[in-house]
Specification:
Layout lengths: L7 H15 L8 E6 L9 E6 L2 H4 L25 E6 L4 E5 L9 E5 L11 H20 L16 E7 L11 E6 L7 H8 L23 E4 L8 H16 L18 E5 L3 E6 L4 E6 L2 E6 L8 E4 L4 H10 L3 H9 L16
Parallel strand pairs: 2-13
Antiparallel strand pairs: 1-2, 3-4, 4-5, 5-7, 6-7, 6-9, 8-10, 9-10, 11-12
Helix pairs in contact: 3-5
Length: 352
């Protein structure tokens, strides 16, 4: 029995459009541009940069004395106007709309019970997320779409699921939730290039390590997924665990004696129907410099999907990067929030 109905994409659109009309979803107006990398080592990569004055558009609600903001968890509140499905996999999850999206039809797959956002993904988490992708993607996969010659290996419409795990991953609510968005048209990430060169699915092990993309400065671990992966939950789990094992090596920190000084385990998990990725994270926010000006940027897993958000305080950076066609601040920022790419290094004996 399918976890999701075949009409899910249509249902999502109907509920989203109604919620926008009634004001239950506040869609932020934004501007997006592509910027091709100016780093010759990164080849043909490009970034999808979005400018949005979130603070200027977000409605200001009056303060309520009976609500302690830092303890408020919106995921425990039942909001039927935002709910797409409220009983998934024996009521383990619900599928809801993001109330303040920048991307249309931004979905959240949320556990019904409060589970920390630092917890590992379970087999059910992976199963529910993958089947969500397959259900949303199915109609697009069946359509005979004409692609430009340069992008004939990338679908015009496709989805990605991501999970921001740990305090340095960029999550804002400490309640386990995976997020699902439709990717921008023509977006081609480093994972797409990597899997294009290495399309054969496999489960990484001691003899064959996860794929790493050499041309980006930050550490990354990836694996291609089979085209027809239906009910093999174990396969997804083994892929996830193998990628996680490599990411966890960055947090061993044997030389640090005081636990308070240890870097908390954090990573960005991303999955499409074609591949799975884990990026170990050292920060969610970092400072970058451009044209003698300093800026503070933040990102969750979307930064490692080449999707960067610039707010009002970063407007000048956004405009200057596009005008000068210089992507250096983005590349410096992604490295600062991750770890240096140690491409090709064999895992040590003390790896998890």
């Amino acid at each position: 029995m399918s976890v999701y109905p075949k009409s899910l994409r249509k249902t999502v659109s109907e509920i989203y459009n109604k919620a926008v009309t009634t004001g239950n979803v506040i869609k932020f107006e934004s501007t997006s541009k592509y910027l091709k990398t100016s780093n010759s080592a990164e080849g043909n990569l490009k970034y999808h940069l979005t400018y949005c004055d979130i603070d200027g558009q977000k409605p200001q609600k009056p303060e309520r004395g009976d609500v302690v903001k830092e303890n408020f968890n919106p995921f425990l509140k039942h909001e039927p106007e935002l709910t797409v499905m409220d009983n998934i996999m024996d009521n383990e999850y619900k599928l809801v709309l993001n109330k303040y999206p920048i991307v249309d039809e931004h979905l959240l797959l949320v556990t019904q019970k409060q589970v920390p956002q630092s917890s590992l993904l379970s087999p059910n988490d992976l199963n529910a997320a993958y089947k969500l992708l397959k259900t949303l993607q199915q109609e697009f996969d069946e359509e005979d779409e004409e692609e430009d010659e340069d992008d004939d290996d990338v679908k015009k419409e496709r989805y990605a699921v991501f999970y921001n795990c740990g305090p340095n991953s960029g999550f804002s609510i400490d309640h386990k939730h995976l997020q699902c968005i439709k990717l921008p048209n023509k977006l081609k990430t480093y994972q797409d290039f990597l899997v294009q060169e290495n399309p054969e699915p496999y489960i990484p092990n001691v003899k064959r390590q996860p794929l790493e993309y050499e041309s980006v400065a930050y550490a990354n671990f990836n694996v291609p997924l089979p085209k027809n992966l239906n009910n093999d939950d174990e396969y997804l789990v083994m892929c996830y665990v193998s990628l996680l094992q490599r990411a966890l090596t960055y947090f061993q920190q044997w030389e640090i004696e005081d636990p308070k000084d240890r870097l908390p385990t954090s990573y960005s998990f991303i999955m499409t129907t074609d591949w799975m990725t884990i990026i170990p994270r050292s920060k969610s926010v970092a400072e970058v410099e451009f044209e003698s000006d300093k800026y503070t940027l933040g990102t969750n897993a979307l930064g490692y999907l080449h999707m960067l958000l610039f707010k009002e305080e970063q407007k000048k950076l956004y405009e200057d990067m596009l005008a000068k066609k210089d992507s250096t601040p983005v590349e410096d920022f992604l490295l600062a929030c991750g770890f240096p790419n140690n491409f090709g290094a064999a895992p040590g004996e003390n790896d998890y």
